[in-house]
Automatic annotation (TrEMBL):
UniProt organism field: Allomesorhizobium camelthorni
This protein's UniProt keywords: Hydrolase, Metal-binding
Gene3D superfamilies cross-referenced by the UniProt entry: Alkaline Phosphatase, subunit A (3.40.720.10)
InterPro entries: Alkaline_phosphatase_core_sf (IPR017850), Sulfatase_N (IPR000917)
Protein name in UniProt: Sulfatase-like hydrolase/transferase
PANTHER family hit by this protein: IDURONATE 2-SULFATASE (PTHR45953)
GO molecular function (one): metal ion binding
CDD domains on file: sulfatase_like
Amino acid sequence: MKAVFVLFDSLNRHVLAPYGGKRVPTPNFARLAECAATFERHYVGSLPCMPARRDMQTGRLSFLHRSWGPLEPFDNSFPELLGKAGVYSHLVTDHFHYFEDGGATYHTRYDSYDFIRGQEGDPWKAMVQPPWERLREMYHERQFSHAARDKFRRNIVNREFIKKESEYPSVQCFVAGLEFLYQNRAADNWLLQIETFDPHEPFTAPERFREKFRTAWNAPIRDWPRYGRVDELPEECEELRANYYAVVALSDFLMGQLLDYFDAHDLWRDTALIVTTDHGFLLGEHDFWAKNRMNMYEEIVHIPLFVHDPRRPAGAGVRRSALTQTIDLAPTFLDLFGVPAAAEMQGHSLLPLLRADGSRRRGALFGYFGGAINVTDGRYTYHRFPPNPRSQELYQYTLMPAHIWEPFTPEELAQASLADPLPFTKGAPVLKIPVTERSPMFDNCGPGALLENETRLYDLANDPGQNSPLSSPDIQRKMTLLMHDLMRANDAPPEAYARIAM
């Protein structure tokens, strides 16, 4: 068996043609849907970037116990399990969060990896004295900074070295992926993961992709929206959205390059292909940009998934309505190669669904650490917030005390205690670290970042846009019981129930 896993970042399901998207032509995703099963009700687990990847690698949810952080010593990682079974794995990525404190143990689970530099705030190019006066005129004030180590500064410097289409990191990712296929397609027992940060912000694409979405904007570069409520003028919003559409068009083109290679070398007969993303991105819907700050709306949590298995040709072109989520990826990759899923994994292999649709789970639990606990049964979504997110009892359970960009502070660690092993830590005790307002994560992707904290119930059948919260004590009671059962199955700590007043 051979397998290719393509992982985009912030790829909105609803803009893709197989899911009814019309604003952006995505003919290659339409081609993909003809060759693979399209999953209709696929949901996230833990958010955002690295928590989502921890779920994907380990096959279990992490957001009830931990915010953004490295893989833990007790975590099961599907590429590592594949390696122990004799399956070679290779990662090609421009996702620079793998190479920060909070992601530094993910890429080393693969047999080899290739890191393409230059995305967003990647500390890539060294320019001690950039030409700030020229650059200040080029960029909108909301995405300009010359402060040391600031992500906007780093991005501005990086973009001075990314001019030609061939220099764009996502383009280089797919070139490197095709090089792996050229070198290894005749071999057996390998997994290739092609992972690009696109279409994550900033929405930067080669000019030929931007031409299709030209707006009337005639001001400095504006392709990086804030995380928060929309307060921009309409023409500014249109420019931001247009630049997102351009990066989606680029992503579709790159997807087409891979599909062309599959066609030219008939990889469809012996190579699996799985394509998905980590989460979506609000482009003004619900009066918000981005993620992290608001309720977990469908645009963020309901994501695309395509699965092709050469041993199940009947799965080509079908659509599946089973409720699935990101924790299903690890057991699926293991199943492709005949490797048993680890006992701690809670996901289910998706491969049986290629033969026939069915039901693998009653519901899907998802969320950000410290935010609402959310659940869907496919018909309803229920989002239950702590009564007061800023004062809830909350702990991080970890043996790898690192935030996104830095280790836990001595002040945080001074309050840590050693907790008994959790059911999934394989007998290892863990640090139990209280979350305080002085924690580096608190106002970034933690409780202090929330701009909405109202518990809500939505009926997706009658209100797919989630515009009108549903008032139904009976349905809320049913969803609360489902949430409780899934939290228990996920070994939620005792305070998790108390903090949402359950």
